[in-house]
Amino acid sequence: MASRAGRITRGSVVVGVFALATLWGAAAASAHVTVSAPGASSGGSDQVITFRVPTESATASTVGLQVKLPTDTPIASVLVAPHTGWTEKVTSVKLAKPIVTDDGNITEAVSTITWKADTPADGIKPGEFDQFVVIAGQLPTARSLTFPAIQTYSDGTTVSWIETQAPGSTDEPEHPAPVLSLTSSGTGSPGGSSTAAPTVTASTSSSSSGTATTGVILGAIGVLLGAGALAVSLAVSLRRRRTP
Fold first, then answer.
1. What phi and psi values does residue 44 have, to the nearest 5 degrees?
2. Is the pTM of the predicted complex or chain greater than 0.90?
3. pLDDT digits (tens, 9 = 90+) for 145-159
4. Is the distance from CB of 31 to CB of 56 less than 8 angstroms?
5. 32 with 201: CB under 8 angstroms?
6. How far apart are CA 135 and CA 13, in angstroms?
7. Closest Cα to residue 22, out of 11, 14, 32, 34?
8. Among 84, 156, 189, 201, whose CB has the most other CB atoms within 10 angstroms?
9. Which of 135-149, 192-206, 225-239 has the weakest average pLDDT?
């Protein structure tokens, strides 16, 4: 019996360590700057796009975010939602090839949006996140859109979320650029409504968000299993002590 109790105790420790490691990996994977737009379709219009910004630093707040929009497959028009405590700056560039629309040709497109906290106190504090929202008047005909981003902290440090996944690789870069996958025009309709489940990624790997969620679930299961194993071990130990 003593040997069995020892094995159970060691097993509970192993399961607990595995659970902690899994939860740590999930937390790291979810700390990226990400982009989402449920139901976004290629060529769709009036699409709400959200950039989620978590603060990874334990001592400094996020006080700035710069997002670059694609100009090779430009978005026809962009409106920025006001954000309390932050000021936005929108920069446009002249397009080499105009965008043809029913209302005429568009010769300029937004290339960069910069958000800056009005004061350090308005920044995103450690352990918190915030969201910045824009509306795309018309999305380009493309399979995905990449939005390189630069995050600025109150201590002056910056993190460049600009790395892209190597062709054919399944490894996610350390600082991936936010990528939004678009459904085909046949499965998604303008405005973001879709009869099929949209494919939206929060990083260069289409499975990163799913991986983070799965990691949290597996971690929670591991913690429960570890706790159960520890309870069994204690029960066996108490029974041995009571047995003359």
1. -70, 165
2. no
3. 999 999 999 999 999
4. yes
5. no
6. 49
7. 14
8. 201
9. 192-206
CA distance 186 to 40: 12
d(C-alpha 60, C-alpha 74), whole Å: 34
Q: How confident is the model at residue 80 (pLDDT cuts 50, 70, 90)?
A: very high
Distance between first and last Cα of the chain:
14
Pair of tokens at residue 234: 């204690």
Closest to 123 in 3D by CA, of 156, 162, 78: 156
CB 205 within 8 A of CB 172: yes
Residue 94 has pLDDT above 60, yes or no: yes
Contacts of 53 (CB under 8 A, 6+ apart): 33, 62, 65, 124, 129, 130, 131, 132, 151
Of the chain, the percentage scoring pLDDT greater than 90 comes to 52
Section 116-144 average pLDDT: 96
Question: What radius of gyration do the chain's Cα atoms show?
Answer: 24
Q: Which two tokens stand for residue 237?
A: 């130990």
Write out the H or E segment, with its range, that includes residue 78: strand 78-80
9 is written with which tokens? 């105790």
44 has pLDDT over 80: yes
Angle ∠(17,32,116) on CA atoms, nearest 5 = 140
How do residues 149-190 score in pLDDT, each as one tens digit?
A: 999 999 999 999 999 988 877 888 899 999 999 998 654 433
- Please choose, from the candidates 234, 236, 237, 172, the residue with its C-alpha nearest in 3D space to the C-alpha of residue 209: 172
Amino acid at 176: P
